[in-house]
Prior knowledge:
This protein has one domain (3-126). It has five helices and four strands. It has helices at 12-23, 38-46, 67-76, 93-111, 123-126; strands at residues 3-7, 30-34, 56-60, 63-66. The mean pLDDT is 89.
Amino acid sequence: MKRIVLFDGECNFCNSSVQFIIKRDPAAHFLFSSLQSETGEKYVKQYHIPSDVDSLVLIANGKAYTKSSAALHIAKKLDGLWHLLFLFILVPRRIRDGAYDYFARNRYRWFGKNEEACMLPSPEIRKRFI
């Protein structure tokens, strides 16, 4: 079953995160779409994702995961030791999401906003963008 990662296409950190996931996902568990795309907007409506969620969403098994839960469920499927990060799921969501929200609020200031054209992925990777 494919998992869909929705990301902020204007955020440099989010775009780097997508590249990070792709490099550690040789089994191609994940497909990608920006939140700003037509496909992304369709999933936001379909899964009733709150409008204040503007950074990372994972859609898997008929459910939308947001914030730290999305990041941890993604890490769980990555090659290497990244799956060990899933242990942080034991930390109460309020604490995890508080840290996530702090980072998300500052991501444009720290990493910038992509005002230019997106990267051009190889044809093989391009298939993973929906």
